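Archive record:
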Amino acid sequence: MTTLRTLTACFLTFLLSLAAAVAGKPNIILVMSDDQGWGDVAFREHPVLKTPHLDKMAAESLVLEQAYASAPVCSPSRASILTGRTPNRSTCYRHGHSMHPKEETLPQILKKYGYATGHFGKWHLGTLYKNSPVNPTAAGYDEWISAPNFFDIDPTLSNKGVATQYKGDSSEITMRLALDFIKRQSAAKQPFFTTVWYGSPHDPHKALDRDKVGYEKLGQHKANFLGEITELDRTVGELRAALRELGIEKETIVWFCSDNGGLKNLGVTGGRAHKGTVYEGGLRVPSIIEWPGKVKAGISKLPTNGSDMLPTVLELAGIEHQPKHPLDGVSIAKTVLGQEKAQPHPLGFWHYDVAGIGCWGEREMQALLKLQQAGQEVTDPKQLRSSGKPVKVSTKANSYPGHSAWLDYPWKLHRIESKKGKVSWELYNLALDPMESKNLTSEKKAEFEALKQAHLNWLQSVQTSMKGADYE
């Protein structure tokens, strides 16, 4: 009897401590567009694009003027947001690669502190089949209705591994599903974390007619591209309105961003080049943080990237957590809250030279639907990615294939290693040369050597993670 009383007391103490931990925790919503460039918003004086809801959000929130994606393509950028690590550490090198199943993710951490977790929209960090080690469940999500990659009108999505057809525009569907989750958690007084990851404005661009109004003279391709952003913008307005109707806007952090820089010949990028490159245009993204009553409206010019989101969110939520693996991200919470002057920190980028993995989401989901209608499931270990093994890459000492960069503002150093091992360097002063047009490696030798050594040290650290050292 004494033992039973002791166990009961311990259990009640646990429940009370958990309730205390949950009380006062902010809800967290990470909203991300797909291939929206730094200037693909009206508030950055786009000549024709209409984004009234993002404009209003920007006017009432903190705009991160120098926000960067952690990678110039989608999958690695997404992995970085969920892990707080540069994507090569998590073996997500290029588009279509999986995040390593041994990574510790933001939803996994938040679940430990009483959060309900949900993912809605594009995944692209593994497969969406049941029992896959790289699906959203494995990454810590309680609920998910997701697409393997980009998706458009009337998509087939995976509802925790069950192929389900939906009607409507992809952005509308994504937000509708997310709002259903949010409303249920709000009614239950349950703090929640949700990622709302759009499939727009990734190609192929297919906007509804109503969203192309005003863009018709620009040609069908551009009208569809801009129309997808306008549709996405409207659903951001629906989210903000719903939070206010529920009376939880002051208890909720909403962080909007894009997954990489803008599209060539379509998007308005934040500098030289476009998606797929490590120059400014391939990395700079729109980024807005809203938390009414906590985060003041304004503009921050602090350079920050996707790796910073995990430690920042945890600090904003008042969670002290010891990470399992080395983080690249640094919390900017105090800057976000206006508690201290922004302190720039170096940002590393490494676009590894290895092929991506193609993924046609609708085709994949239609095949799953037909299989399940016949009473079957995917069992092929290769399709499930059951081994969890990453794509094989070289980890030869002192060799870092591809295009990497080290940003220690105002300096940005590029290292480009060809397939044959030839290395070239480029150094730019972004404050004076935001388009990265004048290489200063020969003129600024002292700065070049210091930055070069810091960058090489970082690359070596990342390569150590790529060898699996973090999981031992």
In short: The chain has two domains: 24-345, 394-471. DSSP finds twelve helices and 16 strands in the chain. The chain has a mean pLDDT of 94.
